[in-house]
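Please supply some protein, with fold tokens.
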Amino acid sequence: MNQPAKDQHLPLQTLVIPSDLAMVSKVEGQILQQIEQHHYSDEAIFAIKLTLEEALTNAIKHGNKCCGDKQVIVRFHVDEEQFVVYIRDEGPGFNPDAVPDPTSPDRLSLPSGRGILLMRAYMDEVAYLDDGRELYIRKWNRP
């Protein structure tokens, strides 16, 4: 599993979950509890919750195709300065630049396809590693 050099010093907690959408809220809850303990703003909490929901759902549905034999690995760090998370699925990967623009007129009425756009809008850093099998996210805790 990759980790950007700037984060090599961060102690990461690890959660391994099955490809079950019911696990999304459990992971969210565990991480958000720590976010709240570090006094992140309501806006940051909203952004992190939305991003976790999108990222975990994408890993389970699109990466692992809801296959019960596959897992999602969530590695994260929360402190008073930042939230960092890596979400890895066992799928074949994808090219995020090849995902159609959900704001184009022909895609506006479609019910899906906005997750990547939302994550990029709400987080300070978003990157796809290992050919799209791992998502890296950072949100700074700003007063």
User: Anything to note?
Assistant: The domain at 13-140 is CATH 3.30.565.10 (Heat Shock Protein 90). The longest helix spans residues 42-63. The longest strand covers residues 71-78. The mean pLDDT is 93.
